[in-house]
Amino acid sequence: MHKLNDRAMLLANHVRNIVMELQNIQKGDKSKLDIDPFVTSALTQQDFSEIFPRFSLSRQQAINVLTPNSTSRMNSTSSCLLLLLVACISFATASVWSDCGSKLAKIDAVKISGCDDSAKECVLKRNTNVSIHVEFTTNTAVSKLNTVVHGVMMGMPVPFPLAHPNACEDTGLACPLKGNEKYSYTAIMPVLKSYPKVNVDVKWELQNPKTEDLICLLIPAKIQ
Fold first, then answer.
1. Do 203 and 215 form a contact (C-beta atoms < 8 A)?
2. Judgement on whether residues 178 and 156 belong to the same structural domain of the protein
3. Which end of the chain has a smaller Cβ tally under 10 Å, C or N?
4. What is the pTM for the complete model shown?
5. Does residue 153 lie in a domain region?
C-alpha cells in the first residue's frame, strides 16, 4: 500500500466538498459557497506547482479557480474542479519509483530500505547497502532471470556492478517462474564508497535470457 501525501489528500477532500456545493447551487440551492482558508493560506507555491503541474497553474490562479465570485462561472468552475480533483488524487498516490518498461510482469509493490514511498528521491549513502523488495505478478513463464542495474545520468546509463546478478538465487525467487503467479523479489545493492556524490536515476531490471524485461524500475536517487 502506497503512503498517501496528507496535504494533497486534504486538498482533494476539500475539492470534493466544493464540487458537491457547486452541484447543489446548480440544482437551485443558492447558499453561499464556503471556501476553507486552508486553500488560501496553508499551501505554498511549491505545493501548487507539484499538485497542479499538468495544468500549469500558479498558486493564485488555482485559488481563483477555487473561489468563484459569481454563479455565472459555476459551470466552468465545476469542470475545472473535477480536473483538479483528478490531479490531486494522482499526486497523492504517486510513488518514488516508476515503471520503465516492464513487459513480462506487472509490478504490484516496491519497498526500498531507508526511502519513504512519498519521497521525491531516495538518498543512497556511500559505503552502505540498500535493499530493494519488489512484489510482482508474471504475465508468462520465465526460465531464468538476471539482475541488470544502471545509474542513468544525463541520459547516459552507467553499469552498477552486482556481486550476484543471478536473480533466481538468494532473492526469494526459484526459477523457473510460472505465468500468472505472484512473486516476491529481494536484492541488495552496495553503494560503494568510491561512488561520486551525484543525483542519479537507478534503473533496476530483471531480464530473461533474451534480455526482455520481466520488470523494470526507475528510482530517482541522490548519492551522499
1. no
2. yes
3. N
4. 0.59
5. yes
